[in-house]
Structure formats: structure tokens, C-alpha cells
């Protein structure tokens, strides 16, 4: 059973081979998209959901601005300008370490506290549209998937989430320690949930909270002059590297697993004839 982000990857692969690549479209809207806003009140789509698939279900785990695959954040969601209405959002998507947007849009629309419509589409039309059922607590301001909003909350110690490299990152207001190497830095809040890190007065990296127990460190390309692009302060879409970091602040992984135990429990069984 494929995950949502895997399906997005398949979609992108197919579109890249055809005539529906959104490169030109993405370039036109580059200045009008931003990461969905983290806030004290977590947006309605953040949480643990189930999506019907065939005779069963698959999971959908989503924070303010990231789709998860397994336990880890996988796909950034960029809010398309002008698309936000009460209880409705349209996102462009980009995989971590991907350059540019994937060739599809994701629409979410609130139905009630425990249901939303979830749609993936391209210029050619709708690829999939279904109703997602919430497994987590609805509209919880203190959801473990809520993105941290304050700079001070993002400072501290992290470890590489891949479980292989065992890299460690420690960030304070004036020092970055990465893989045992210390570097003098300055930090600034870019947006809620995002910290810009500069070294020698030049942009070095962005640390973005991912929701759950994770953050993402985005290492900027050498010579990058700003943390944003263009006159409208558009988000950067290409990085030297993006790495998922872990720190157990609320043990969100366990909470997500506990919620996923309820997947399929809301489906009514057919009566035997």
C-alpha cells in the first residue's frame, strides 16, 4: 500500500516524462507561495488521519507544513497565494532535497471536526479525491504535530534522525555545533517556526520546525545572499542539503502510533445476509 508522499513521487516522475511539468507555472507563482503559517491555533489539517484505499485504509500524518512518510517528515507543503479560505487550503509540494515543486497540487477542505476532503490534482484534472477521517484530537492547540513558533523554542540539541550518521547539532544564539565542529553564528526569526542562521554575516542555513519530534536543517548553497528570493521574499526551493533532525520533546512518535491503532475502526461492518 503506497504512502501519500510515495504517490506524489510517482506522479512527479510521470509528469516529468510528459508535457505537464509545472516548471513554468512554478516559476510564475514562486513569489506568491509560502509555507503555511504556523500559529498558536494549529491549522485544522494538522493531525493523524486515515484515507480509504480499496477495501482498507492508509495513514495520512501531516503537520502545519509537512507530510510525513512513516515516522519522518518527507514533503513540504507550500500554501498557494490566494487559495486560503475559511477551512480550505491549496498547496504546492516539494520533497525534501528536491528542487522545485512536484507536478501536482494538494487541496484540503474542512468538513467538520473529524473529516476533511483530500484531493490531489494536476492541470489535466483530479487524480484522487477522498474523505479523510481524523484519528487525532481535533483542532488541538497543543497537538504534538503543531509547529513550534518561537525562536527560543527551536534552540537546543538535536540528533540526526536517520539513525545511521549519528550527527549532532546544537544551536544557541551565538554558536552552532554540527558534528563536533563549533562555529560562531547569529540567529534570526525568519517566520514563525523558522530560524535563519548566519556565519560571518552571510546566510548559512535555515532551521525549520517540522512538527512532532522533528526539525529540518536546510543548508544553503554557497554564495546564497539571502534567506528568501525575489522582491516578494519567496521561499527558497533549492538547498545544498536538507537533513531531518530529532529531539524527543513530547514523544510524538508514540502518540501517532497510538492514534493509528484506531485506523479502520470507524468503518461499519456489512451485515451478513
How would you describe what is shown here?
The chain has 273 residues and is mainly beta. The protein has two domains: 137 residues, no CATH class; 102 residues, Lipocalin. Helix content is 12%, strand content 44%. It has four helices and 20 strands. The strands form three sheets. Strands 1, 2, 3, 4, 5, 6, 7, 8 and 9 form a nine-stranded antiparallel sheet that branches. Strands 13-12-11-10-20-17-16-15-14 form a nine-stranded antiparallel sheet. Strand 11 and strand 12 form a beta hairpin. It is globular, with a radius of gyration of 19 Å. The protein starts with a helix and ends in a 13-residue tail after the last helix. The C terminus is likely disordered.
Describe, in short, the structure shown.
By secondary structure, this protein is mainly beta.
Features:
single chain, 273 residues, mainly beta, Lipocalin, 2 domains, nine-stranded antiparallel beta sheet, 4 helices
Q: Got a strand count?
A: 20
> How is the main sheet built?
9 strands, antiparallel
Q: On the 0-100 scale, what is the average pLDDT? A: 83
Q: Total number of helical segments? A: 4
Order of helices and strands: HHEEEEEEEEEHEEEEEEEEEEEH
- Tally the structural domains: 2
Q: What is the oligomeric state here?
A: single chain
Distance between the termini: 30 Å
Uncertain segments are 11-39, 269-273
The SS-based structural class is mainly beta
Proportion of helical residues: 10-25%
* Overall shape: globular
Radius of gyration, CA atoms, in whole angstroms: 19 Å
Amino acid at each position: 500500500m503506497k504512502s501519500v508522499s510515495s504517490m506524489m513521487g510517482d506522479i512527479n516522475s510521470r509528469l516529468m516524462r510528459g508535457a505537464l511539468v509545472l516548471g513554468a507555472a512554478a516559476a510564475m507563482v514562486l513569489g506568491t507561495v509560502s509555507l503555511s503559517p504556523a500559529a498558536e491555533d494549529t491549522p485544522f489539517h494538522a493531525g493523524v488521519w486515515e484515507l480509504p484505499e480499496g477495501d482498507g485504509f492508509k495513514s495520512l500524518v501531516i503537520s502545519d507544513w509537512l507530510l510525513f512518510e512513516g515516522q519522518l517528515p518527507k514533503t513540504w507543503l507550500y500554501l498557494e497565494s490566494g487559495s486560503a479560505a475559511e477551512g480550505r487550503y491549496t498547496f504546492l509540494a516539494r520533497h525534501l532535497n528536491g528542487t522545485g515543486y512536484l507536478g501536482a497540487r494538494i487541496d484540503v477542505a474542512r468538513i467538520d471536526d473529524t473529516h476533511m476532503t483530500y484531493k490531489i490534482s494536476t492541470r489535466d484534472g483530479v487524480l484522487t479525491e477522498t474523505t479523510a477521517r481524523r484519528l487525532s484530537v481535533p483542532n488541538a492547540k497543543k497537538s504534538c504535530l503543531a509547529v513550534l513558533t518561537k525562536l527560543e523554542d527551536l534552540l537546543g540539541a538535536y540528533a540526526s534522525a536517520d539513525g545511521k550518521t549519528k550527527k549532532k547539532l546544537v544551536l544557541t544564539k551565538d554558536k552552532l555545533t554540527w558534528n563536533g565542529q563549533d562555529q560562531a553564528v547569529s540567529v534570526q526569526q525568519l517566520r514563525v517556526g523558522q530560524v535563519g542562521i548566519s556565519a560571518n554575516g552571510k546566510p548559512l542555513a535555515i532551521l525549520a520546525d517540522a512538527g512532532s519530534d522533528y526539525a529540518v536543517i536546510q543548508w544553503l548553497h554557497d554564495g546564497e545572499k539571502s534567506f528568501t528570493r525575489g522582491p516578494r521574499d519567496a521561499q527558497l526551493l533549492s538547498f545544498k542539503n536538507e537533513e531531518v533532525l530529532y529531539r524527543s520533546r513530547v514523544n510524538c512518535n508514540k502518540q501517532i502510533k497510538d492514534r493509528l491503532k484506531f485506523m479502520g475502526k470507524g468503518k461499519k461492518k456489512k451485515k451478513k445476509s
